[in-house]
Amino acid sequence: MNFPPKDIAIIGGGIGGVATAVALEQAGIHATVYERARELREVGAGVILWPNATRVLRDLGVLDRVIAHSGSSDAFLVRSSSGKTLMHLALGDFEVPALCTRRADLLAALVGSLPPDRIRLGQELTHLELTPGEQSDSKVRLHFAMSAPGRCDAQPVDCIEHDAVIGADGLRSRVRAELFGLSEPTYRGYTVWRGIANYNGSALPRGSSETWGSGKRFGIWNTGQDRFTWYGTVNVSRDHRDTPAGRKQELLDAFAGWHDPIPALIRATDESAIVKNGAFDRAPLLRWTRGPVTLLGDAAHPCTPNLGQGCCMALEDALVLAKCVSQGPSIASAFERYESLRRPRTTHLQRRSRMMGRIGQWDNRVLVAGRKTITNLLPAMLFEYNLRKVYSYET
Question: Does residue 172 sit in the same domain as residue 213?
């Protein structure tokens, strides 16, 4: 290591933030994670980990633990609402698997690789400022709202200094707003419902799948132990509210008549466990970094969920950033190097994911019919080639 940054703050205790702390810890760099929630947990259902992400988990030493709580897949089917297979995509032979796991299990595997004093809960960032000094030795002063501590030994703080700060605080990042001003993410016209259900019937073919309809899609992923992560997308307004009948009934109505086991999976999911989020992203930033402060994951490059790459890109970010910090002559130059390595790929995937969502959510009858015909006729190897370029990425 050419220089030893003594103390880095990570704002955000989600998967990207904790993975970054693990990667920095392995590089011999001290990092403290500040999370505003009073309990460390991942809100959501399952998360898809393509080989580009499981390769990172292997390098972080947690892949075997994640595999033990996951389901794997070697194929992906595109289907019509009647159940007809429109395309069968082989995911390819990689040295690591494609997995689907519960977000909570992935987060637990990462947290288990950190010393317990690395995470501080109940800490909500209000603003940050650079302390006076030269570019190479200036520090970042973090100000937090005073609140009761969460389930940890640390007491809440109102102000603390670090050598550098990484904003891993999601779509509506406070660190991003501090660097580049407040702005609203862009709603892409549809909302995503997610859940995990137990299912041991015979209606699921080998592999994972996504079913396309008019303005709707439904995806199914094996999460292991007869559990399946599912998601449903529907074109609705940004301010869409739950119906009086509840989310489960709304989904059963939306996907009525679709092939098995879609209705069965919805019925088997507890109403309170169905997660609902609008599909948002942002235009790519011209830069992520300002001196000893940078962004990571959704704070830097929020992505619609259509490629299943949001979490994967955050894991990639974590490992690339740690390598840059361990090798750079200064923290500022390391952050700039990290950004230059990551921005072309993440910008490409943001735009590609947005395009796939737009096509998948078509509700014009002519366009939907044309999409079905083209998907059925085009050779699968064309899509497989492009997907493998994404999954072959190595940090």
Answer: no
